[in-house]
Amino acid sequence: MNHPMTVIASAPLSGIPLESFLDDTEEAVELQSESGLAEDLARSALLTALRRQPFRADTVSSVARLFRLWLRAGQMQEALRVIEDDGRAVVSRLPDGEQPGARISIAFWRIEVQQNGEDAAALRDAVLQAEQVLHELPVPLATENAWAHLSDAAAGAGEHACVRRCAAARHALQLAQPERAAYRAWDEALLAVRLGVAFAAEGLDEEARASARRAIEVLAQAGQDQDVDHEDWLRLGTSLVMLDPQLVDTVVGKVGALVPADLSLPRLRRVRVLLARLEARALCQQGRWEEGLAKARAGRFGLTDDEDDRYNTQVLRWLLQADRKEEAARLAFECVFHQRPGSAQAMVEAAMQHADGEPGHEDVHWVLTLASAALWESVHWVCGEEDPEVYFERHLALAAQMAPDHPALDVLRALALLEHRQDHAGALALLEVAVPRASEWANSDIVEKVWRCRMLVHGAPAAVALPFVSAPCGTWAYTVGVRIEELVEELPEGTPWPEEQIRELQARYYEEGLAAFEAFFESGEGYYRDGDVHNYSMLCNNLAIYHRCTRENYLQAAELHRKGIAASPFAEHYQGLMWCHFGAGEEASFVDAADQLWHFAADYGYGRHKPTGYIVEVGPILVRLNRDAELAIWLQRLEEWWSELDEEDRRAWEEDYLTAVVLLLANIIYTQPEDALARLEPILPTLWKLQLIDALRLAGLVLEKAGSPERVLKHYEEALALCVPPLPHAEHWRGRLGEALEAYRQAIAPARPWWRFWG
After folding, report:
1. Are the C-beta atoms of 432 and 392 separated by less than 8 Å?
2. Residues 86, 65: Cα–Cα separation, whole Å
3. CB neighbours of residue 125 within 10 Å
4. Beta bridge partner(s), residue 13
5. What secondary structure letter does DSSP report for 55?
């Protein structure tokens, strides 16, 4: 007997049952994606689930979720039906204040559906409908982000006039903001660039060039009241040069004129790399390949600014256009071997096109690129239906025939042994020979693998006694230094771990990385990853910690923190610099550095900021420096920090916070006794409840200055009574409190009548 597989429900699924269905279905889709299920099978399974019953979305959220499931199932018309029917019905039932926002959401969802189809006219109509909705919305809802989103959609639909109208609308919103008064020149220049890009996309080259010249004019003539610096010229530089390559000299000249004279060398090198990219683009657009590609080499360094390695994709295109296939092949192998996101796909595609040239004429680096791709999961698609291991072996064998002495061959063989066989001994034998003669391929992953294999084969103590493995690039050396201590997790439990030697090894990599970074900043010559100034800054921080904590070399550590701050500042540098001054006994500098840390954390955020750790040192130092008036400032800061913590953090840090507060009060007591006592009274019960012995000892000092002798004596005696096991360090605290009590007794003794007996 045949049974139907599905039963169509008589009433549409809606409300909470629909939400449950959406939850389950979205989870199933996610699991299928994670499991690697073929796309056609996943789509078929989703379509079956969606066709089991009718649906009626009755909230804005359920409309969004349901139409996207239909879209994922490849059913555009069903997705549109949800938007047009259910979506409009939902909007009509919303309160008046919520309808405008929902209308624009629906308009953008309509665009999203049409972007998945092939009907260009329908997509353009959806874009223009969304534009009309935005024009009808109240200003607070027609945000710049909404216009930007519509602009991107319009550009994709070829509605270039709409793109320009979006640019004008965004500019109008900026003009309506009084707080942007200092950025009018920037806003005007940005408008001109956006118009120019739209003109260029439409093929209106003269209008595009005129817009670029307008942007140049606005920025160049900006008054003293306008905030325009070299970074603004750099931000617009690429677009300006694309619109009119003849403008490159003007842009480069303006950047050079506006660069601050005191800009640190790492930041200056970043500017020079970006300028080299601009000049390369302009020269290559004009067909001046020799000059352009020379500039491109100076711009081929990964910067902190870069989201990925897309610049090398452009360089690859230029090399192929200039018929520099040998350089293109080498670049492709370099990018794929080092697994650079953003460029890898284009490099692999180019290798697939050029690796099968005339026998004997193809470059070995195209073949090596394909072999490397087989070892990198994100580009496994290159293997097609062939097993990646087989694909790798086939291409590596071909490369070995073409260039049997290529230094990267054994490195790739070792990687394959680790990937497919987990053969650490075999891989190590290859790497020990290959890495010293293939330094340009000795990236952080390779060097880390050498140390991992050494430790697994020889044990960690013997491994660290083996010859140093150089990582010649700044970022590579920094990364190895960070990761080397994590290798303990790779070893069998109980394996000896030479902690001190590991720290020394880390420091050696940090020193090597520091030298590589700074050589690049000075000369502009180096490896691709030498250009990341934030990695340089993090390396400076790690090396500074080593010198401060292991070597107690505070002077050198402080200099490293200053280098990091000049390159790419973050809170740990300010904190480290503060403790360098503390360790060196430079009390005034310590307080100033603490002040800098506080302000930096307040301005930029610092998730691990724990001011109690240094405020307890700041308080007594301020007293010694006769700067008692500043104690109230730090007390206020402490209260401000505490007020911003959530409940979980308050529970974790309550003891430290209370101790820091009482310590400041114990110092403030000399100049503001009444205020100190007033602040202490509300927290005293909590100190007793938590049995914070040190805080109670400090509270006694406050009471000494502002309380009665009887109360002070009782306070110390009751605190002493707590100093018994199982209180941690009970004897220590008993001693400290006993000293405080005895000192107070002696202090008040002369004030007692001689004729009265005191027990």
Report:
1. no
2. 12
3. 16
4. 55
5. B
Residue 543: name the closest of 499, 491, 507 by CA.
507
Give the whole-angstrom CA distance, residue 453 versus residue 348: 29
Around Cβ 653, how many Cβ atoms within 10 Å? 18
The pLDDT score that the predictor gives to residue 35 is: 85
Each as own residue / partner, the long-range contacts of residues 168-177 (CB below 8 Å, 24 or more positions apart, any chain) are: 169/134, 169/142, 170/144, 170/194, 173/139, 173/142, 173/143, 173/144, 173/147, 174/144, 176/139
Write the DSSP symbol of residue 260: -
pLDDT of residue 7: 43
Is 459 in a helix, a strand, or coil?
Answer: coil
pLDDT for res 670: 85
pLDDT at 338: 97
Instruction: Please tell me the distance from the alpha carbon of residue 173 to that of residue 189, in angstroms, as a whole number.
Output: 15
Do the beta carbons of residue 723 and residue 733 sit within 8 Å?
Answer: yes
Q: Is 584 helix (H, G, I), strand (E, B) or coil?
A: coil
- 137 HSE (CA, 13 A, CB side): 25
Pull the structure tokens for residue 108: 């953008």
Per-residue DSSP letter, 419: I
Q: How many residues does the chain have?
A: 759
Give the DSSP letter string of 276-322: HHHHHHHHHHTT-HHHHHHHHHHH-S--TT-SSSHHHHHHHHHHHHT
pLDDT of residue 748: 87
Residues 485-518, buried b or exposed e (16+ Cβ, 10 A)? eebeeebeeeeebbeeebeebbbbbbebbbebbb
Phi, psi of 74 (to 5 degrees): 85, 20
pLDDT tens digit sequence for 152-204: 999 999 999 999 999 999 999 999 999 999 999 999 999 999 999 999 999 99
Assigned token pair, 247: 């403008």
Q: Is 740 exposed, middle or buried (0-12, 13-18, 19+ CB in 10 A)?
A: buried
Write out residues in the chain with pLDDT < 50, as ranges.
Answer: 1-9, 358, 754-755, 758-759
Whether the Cβ atoms of residue 300 and residue 315 lie closer than 8 Å to each other: yes
Q: How far, CA to CA in Å, does 488 sit from each of 365, 418, 497, 546?
A: 36, 18, 7, 19
Q: Which residues of 295-328 are buried (b: 16+ CB within 10 A; e: fewer)?
A: bbebbbbbbeebeebebbbbbbebbbebebbebb
- The residues near 271 (Cβ < 8 Å, ≥ 6 apart) are 230, 234, 255, 259, 263
Q: In whole angstroms, give the CA distance from residue 673 to residue 703.
A: 9
| CA triple 247-252-258, angle to 5 deg | 125
The secondary structure of 610-622, three-state, reads CCHHHHHHHHHHH
Task: Locate 582 and state its tokens.
Answer: 């503390």
**What are the C-alpha distances in Å from 171 to residues 144, 160, 180, 188, 453?**
9, 17, 11, 8, 58
423 contact partners, CB below 8 Å, separation of at least 6? 417
* SS3 (DSSP) at 736: helix
- Sign of the dihedral through C-alpha 138, 143, 147, 150: negative
Q: Are 701 and 740 in contact (CB under 8 A)?
A: yes
The beta-strand segments (E) located in 297-441 are none
Cis peptide before 726, with omega less than 30 degrees from 0? Answer: yes
> Is-contact 541 560, C-beta < 8 A?
yes
Strand partners, 55: 13
- Tokens 């939850």 sit on residue: 23
Q: Amino acid identity of 603?
A: D
